Amino acid sequence: MDTPLRTFSESPEDPFALHRAATAVLDGQGTVVGWSPLAERLLGFRPEDVIGRRALEVLVDAEDRTAAVTAIGACVAAGGWFGVLPVRRRDGRRLRMGFRSRLVVRAGHGEEWFLVGAPAEDVIQWETDRSLLDGIFRRCPIGVSVHGPDLSILRVNRAIATFGGAPAETMHGLRMGDFLVTPDARIAERGLRSVLETGQPLIFTEQPCRLRTDPPGRERFVAVSAFRMEDPAGQVLGVTQFIEDVTDRELARRRLALLNDVSARIGTTLDVTRTAEELARVAVPGLADCVAVDLLEPVVRGWEPARSASGRLCRVALACVTSEPPPAARRAGGEVAFAPGSAQARCLRERRPVRETLAGAAPAGAAARGPGRASDAHSMMAVPLTARGVLLGVVSLWRAYRPEPFEEDDLTLAAEFAARAAVSIDNARRFTQQREAALSLQRSLLPSDVPEHPAVEVAHRYLPAGGATEVGGDWFDVIPLSGSRVALVVGDVVGHGVPAAATMGRLRTAVHTLAGLDLDPDEVLSQLDDLVGRIAREQEATGPVTGDQIVGATCLYAVYDPISRRCALARAGHPPPVLVTPGGRAALVDLPAGPPLGLGGLPFETAEFELPEGSLIALYTDGLIESGRHDVDEGLRLLYAALDAAEPDLDALCGRVTRTVLPDRPTDDVAVLLARTRVLPAENVATWTLPTEPTVAQLARRLTASQLAEWGLEELAFTTELVVSELVTNAYRYASGPVQLRLIRDSALVCEVSDASTTAPHLRRARSTDEGGRGLFLVAQLTDRWGSRYTRDGKTVWTEQSLDGRADALAALLADA
Fold first, then answer.
1. In 648-772, where does DSSP find H-type helix?
2. Which terminus of the chain has fewer CB atoms gathered within 10 Å of its CB, N or C?
3. Residue 661 CB-density burial (10 A; 0-12 exposed, 13-18 middle, 19+ buried)
4. Chain centroid to CA 458: how far?
5. pLDDT tens digits for 751-808?
6. Is 697 helix (H, G, I), strand (E, B) or coil?
7. How far apart are CA 176 and CA 163, in angstroms?
8. Residues in a beta bridge with 566
């Protein structure tokens, strides 16, 4: 009959088992003397058909008898035989059968042969399964362990015995915790218990598998597959697991993950030191127990390093698994100097990674003391930091607490670390270099110090943004004007980088020039508007060298007069100032907005206010109130709260404003200028309206001498009378209408002569034949400064003399002549 095909997964029973195999008995001459019912069922011959007849004649065809005779001969010679022979069924069909034969001796019957047979397919399948099972436990390189329902070990193969370091027979009855460390044994037993309870198999589940005999610090990982064993009735017999050592694969995966981590964790900032610290932290403890990063000094400072490997090294980063590094990583006093034969020196000289075992270091067993004890390194690597063909420094890595020394794969990984980090460090160095250049330019263009001025008490802050490209064009200024007045300026160039800083410098210079002309605030802004438009057109034609294209600027220009207490302001697209009057609350000044500078053709408007003495006016750029942390309204609310604080120290108040309103790392430049107004006492100002008479100069000299005597400035009387006489005489000759003379005593003595003419005087060199033209020359020589400004009704010519005494000025002038 046909025998169905079986696979190993069906695990057939032993085909030669007596309850399922065909059996027969032959006497010494090969005659059938016994025949089982199973033999009859398999071959179709009844007992009476075969008993008493020779087996070769009944069961074997003529063409198969030679092979049968050979098998019989082998059986006789060996006392038994196993093999496959074709036999004939009663219906004439041939059937390949597997046979086992054994010699049986019975008393009174001599020798007989006991035959057990089964279809060849069943026999071959069973032998294959048995051979496979034998191979799994004797020759398979993958570990196999069989556990009972209580998870005790029933059997292990040789691979498990080799892995555990004990003979296979000694493991019978043990539990996982008898040879694995407790945490790993719990993980392993938890997985097997889950298989037992649920029947769900484990498939390539990776887990740690550290042996109790391993030195501390050594890692092992295995991939486990497990299934539940059941008998035909469904009774749970236990669980079998297959175990493969995947330690090398896990370590390789970790190296790859660590390498991928580099891109995310190194170079998050454009700071050389922080980038080096990121490199050290990434490598500890994933690759090394201790890592040091030593950079050439020019790199730390943001300079261009030399092409050679020479130069002083600075240790900028050190990371260890312990609070105190191993002795090999320590440097006395922080000094970094390597011996000529050291790994670091060779690495720097040859510009290649170096790996070595440290002589005299603690053996691997000593390292097992762990990071809680002082232990020196036993293995180290030195890897150069090079980027764009330039050497930046060296990375040193040590192992002191884990027993495994560095391998070649570790050196390759460290080199890849260093290569990626070096690019980030060099980018940070270049950024530092560019940012310092931009900041130096910006600092050189901003006022280094604001001089004391009698009209206002001032405090200021300038805070650059965090990046080189974020260096902006914010600026402020306090400009002394004639008549004890002062100009307060704050502005912001749209854009960032060096072009913005350079444009800011040009605008600041222009503001100083325009302020010297004593123009009204709206006229100053009009002139700046034309200048910004020209700068934008220049950049559009040539393109900016770096940074953003400059497309405009904003500005606030204010002039305060301490005599009249009037403040004139105009703004061009700039945030309005905040005013705090004595006893009042902070509020924005109601000031026409005006278009930003650079649009061209649009008017600006000046607003004028009278300020009580002690008023606080705050000028600032938009970076103060606009940030990622809050919106403009919230920024203004914080600014109001800071300015409302009762803080008499203006500099302390300025610091309070920046700390309260600004985020920790502002993204835009910020300029803040606080000014508290002062008033010039009335007794320090003397004003006269003079008649237009030929004797007006004489009257002016007499009034001047009298006033200077009242002020106790008699030593200035002679020179001042000459100056006043010359200015009044010019007004009488060349102007019309009344002439006004004003003397101001402040930090300097100011003389002002106003008339209705709009023609400004100018200094010229008189020829020897000229009868006049020398008056303004004398004025210029006898005063510290002089100039003229236009007013609504004409012009004012003014001079300033210091109060430190100019009595001998005329004598010196005449002596030189």
1. 650-661, 696-711, 717-734
2. C
3. buried
4. 39
5. 999 888 877 676 555 444 343 445 677 788 888 888 888 887 788 888 999 887 544 4
6. helix
7. 13
8. 561, 610
